[in-house]
Every structure is written in structure tokens, then in C-alpha cells.
Amino acid sequence: MSPYELKTGVRRSSYFLPTLRETPADATLVSHRLMLRGGLIRQASAGLYNWLPLGFRVLKKIERIVRQEQDRIGAHECLMPTIQSADLWRQSGRYEDYGKEMLRITDRHDRALLYGPTNEEAITSIFAETIKTYKELPQLLYHIQWKFRDEVRPRFGVMRAREFYMKDAYSFDCDKQGGIDSYNSMFISYLRTFQRLGVQAIPMRADTGPIGGESSHEFVIIAETGESTIYLDSSLLDMRWALAAQDDRKKYREMVSRATSLYAATSDEHTPLQFDKQVPRSRQIKTHGIEVGHVFFFGDKYSKPLDAKIKAASGEEVFVQMGSYGIGISRLVAAIIESSHDDRGIVWPKSVAPFKVGLICLDTGKYKVSEELYALLCNNGFETLYDDRFDVRAGVKFAEMDLLGLPIQLIVGGKSATSGSIEFKERKSDERHFVPLEQVIPFIRKQSTADSVTIFD
Ligand code: ATP
Ligand code: MG
């Protein structure tokens, strides 16, 4: 089911899942606390994290959805190294500009290298060496790779780390209109991606920052705990209308123009007067958010200094028009938790949950039934975390399952034993049903279609 073939089922008794009872004192943000307590990550050093098996599964699930949505709009995946040569960055003029955020390294031959914070230079250089004519355009390339930025204050766990996992894509077009069309298809693809990840991400006009350029939007997930204050028109909360178009550049143009005409601004860009003028009181929302994606169109900002030219249809040589598009995959793990948790723990959206089902066996007398159910779940492709421990109290097992936030819990024994059936609990709503063993699989299937979160899954 995934490029990494995540295992369908694991037994809690032999799984590597170092959960914590106590809330770690230095973690202030709820997602950071829950990720540590749930055994998803462990800190290696300031701003550097180990991804433990459970966290790794979530990371891979997010990555898979991001990849599918990039592929859907015709982007091609590649992989560039984490370490880059300083030369290209000197050519673009960013080697000095990037300042202390860039981790600079010298190799044994005294050559200047760096741990890539982003890849505009690297990809432009590949392009310049390989593509020479408009006939080979448009082109969209992306990779999913670790980045390093020596943040002044790494904090909030993987939310603002120094090493983080990012999908970054780059578009190449002959002319400005083509470049904007690529920008638009990526914009729509982002709306789809976040919808599938089970979060509400609002596109907001943004400052172009050190990447530079003409047009830029940030995609911000609404979460009370977010770092930025945001102001928006509540009409932006439902953008399903923007998701239907299939690879039609004209449609994309209309949709992006509709989406971007609605008011949405971070505090830097916010103007209260304009907000009042444009948005009726009843639709004004002021809340907080987390930036999870960022798209830029910057024309020839990099193609010019790096000499990435192509022969246009007219015969003249022109600099290729470029854009770049990032999604913070590792940040998303935390951001999704920020937007989806309760006082008992994480509530994973189904599409990214590390396992779909948490199976708990409560008494030794029911061992055979729960083994049978575990096999049934695995054989039917339901990813299952099976708590098969008998030396742990029921209360502890329940609390841990709630903390881990798997969408469905199945409980064998205890109350269910008296009714001769299996207890089914939906983590999010806390809704419970008692279902006979042979009905469990059809029941889960029915539940999954009834509330199928998106039109794309
Ligand atoms: P921020 O404003 O949060 O510092 P940025 O604007 O510098 O981020 P971009 O260059 O736009 O970041 O990078 C693209 C995406 O990479 C961001 O939208 C974010 O999701 C992710 N990202 C950036 N910096 C970090 C970080 N230090 N830790 C985790 N993810 C990050
Ligand atoms: Mg940004």
C-alpha cells in the first residue's frame, strides 16, 4: 500500500513504542508533548529528532499523499543530495544573503559545501545543463528530502526544527503566462493535498522573503496554538468547489482567482480597514495558524544568474520562467496534531493515522478470539496495532490507545465478553457498538465508506 510497504500489523508486546506516562517538562506545545508521550519521536539534539517507528509511519503516510498529488498534476519525482556545493549559491548571490541559517561545511580539500536549506540553485543548474528548447517545456520536478536551517530558536519539537523533511517542487516554463499556469496547478494541488490530509489549510497572500519573486501564497492550517495570527473570510473554510477540476489550465485560473479574491491575511499583511470593507462582520474570522506550505512564482530570478536559457518558439533565447513550491512534511505531523486532538490525546485523521485499528485484548480467556480477529484484520488489509499484553492493566491500555489516537478501537473481553461480541469504539466521537466477531470486518468497511473523508480517497 505504500512505497515503503509499511507492515500491516504489529503486536504491542514486541513493538518499539516507548510511551511516557509523565508530560515532558520542557515541551510547551501540545503536539510536542503528545509526540513525545506517544513515542513518535525522541530528541537527538537541539532541533534534531529521531523518528521512532510510530512517528515514522505517520511521516511516510503524509509523504505518500503529497507524492500522489504531485504526480497527479504531472510533476516528476527526483532526488537531489542534502549536501550542496557553495559555488552555485555564490552564483545566485544567496551564499552571503542566507546568513547564519545556512550550515556551512568544509571538506578535506577545503572546498566549501553546505547542507541544503532549499534547492532552487541545484535544480536550476540541472535544468540549465539538460533542457535547451521550448519543446521540452513545461516541466515540473520535485523531490522529498531533508533540509537543514540553523534556526535561531528551534522549538516546539518538529514544528520548528533545524533538520526537517520537505517536499519541494520547481516549475519551468517558456513564458510568464505558462509560469503562472504552473503556479495555479500547484495551488490547486495543495488544496487537494491538505484536504486529503484531513486538515483545513487556507491560502494566504504572503511576503516572498529570501526566495524572492512576484507572487506567493502560504498555506496555513487553522490551529489555536499556531504561531501566526490570521484574519480570514469564513467562505474560505469550504473550498471543495476548487478541487474538482482535472488538469485544465483555464479552470485552474478561474479557481485560483476565485480563491485568492477572498480575504485572508497573516498579521504582517493584515489591514483592518480593508478587512471591514471586504468581509461582512458575520464572515470575519480572527484565529491562529501554522504555515505548512508555501508557493512562489519568481520568473527569472534564478535562471538569469545561473544562465538557464531556452530557445523559444520565436527562435530567440529566453530565460526560463520558474516557481518553487514547498510543503513541510515533518512539520505537518505536528500541525495535524495541533488541529486534531482532545484532552486524552491525538485524534488522527484516517488518511494519516499510523494504524487504522487499535485492537485490545483484555483477558487471557479471550486470547483465541482476539488472535483470530487480529489475523482477520491483517488479512483484510486493515493496519492494526494489537495490544496483546497481559501484564498491563486495562485502564493503562485504554489510556494509551486514546493517547495514540488510532481512528478505531476494538476491544475483546471485559464488557464485550458478556454480550458475546466485540466492542467497537470510534476514537473521535467515542461512539460505541457491540459487533459479533464475524460482522467486524463488514462493519468497519461500512463505517469507512459512510464517512469517507474526501472525494479522492
Ligand atoms: P517559517 O516562516 O515557518 O520559518 P519559511 O517561510 O522559512 O517557514 P519556506 O522556505 O517557505 O519556510 O519552507 C517551506 C515549508 O517548509 C514551510 O511552509 C514549512 O512547512 C516548512 N519549514 C520551514 N522551516 C521549517 C522548520 N524550521 N522546521 C520544520 N518545517 C519547516
Ligand atoms: Mg514560508
Question: Care to describe what's here?
Answer:
- A hairpin with a 2-residue loop joins strand 2 (41-45) and strand 3.
- The two termini are 13 Å apart.
- This protein has 13 helices and 24 strands.
- The chain has helices spanning 30-37, 53-72, 86-92, 94-97, 120-130, 176-196, 249-261, 272-278, 329-339, 367-379, 394-404, 415-419, 440-450, and strands spanning 9-11, 41-45, 48-51, 76-77, 83-85, 103-106, 112-115, 139-148, 163-173, 201-205, 215-222, 228-233, 264-266, 284-299, 309-311, 317-319, 321-328, 341-342, 345-346, 357-361, 384-387, 408-412, 422-426, 432-435.
- The protein has 457 residues and is an alpha+beta fold.
- Helices cover 31% and strands 27% of the residues.
- Mean pLDDT is 92; it is low at 451-457.
- The strands form six sheets. Strands 4, 8, 9, 10, 11, 12, 13, 14 and 17 form a nine-stranded mixed β-sheet that branches. A six-stranded mixed β-sheet has the order 1-21-20-22-23-24, sandwiched between helices. A three-stranded antiparallel β-sheet has the order 5-7-6.
- It is globular and about 80 Å long.
- Helix 2 (53-72) crosses helix 6 (176-196).
- The protein folds into two domains: 3-14 and 355-449, 3-Layer(aba) Sandwich (Rossmann fold); 40-345, BirA Bifunctional Protein, domain 2.
- Magnesium ion is lined by residues 218, 291, 294.
Summarize the structure.
By secondary structure, the protein is α+β, with helices and mostly antiparallel strands. It has helices at residues 30-37, 53-72, 86-92, 94-97, 120-130, 176-196, 249-261, 272-278, 329-339, 367-379, 394-404, 415-419, 440-450; strands at 9-11, 41-45, 48-51, 76-77, 83-85, 103-106, 112-115, 139-148, 163-173, 201-205, 215-222, 228-233, 264-266, 284-299, 309-311, 317-319, 321-328, 341-342, 345-346, 357-361, 384-387, 408-412, 422-426, 432-435.
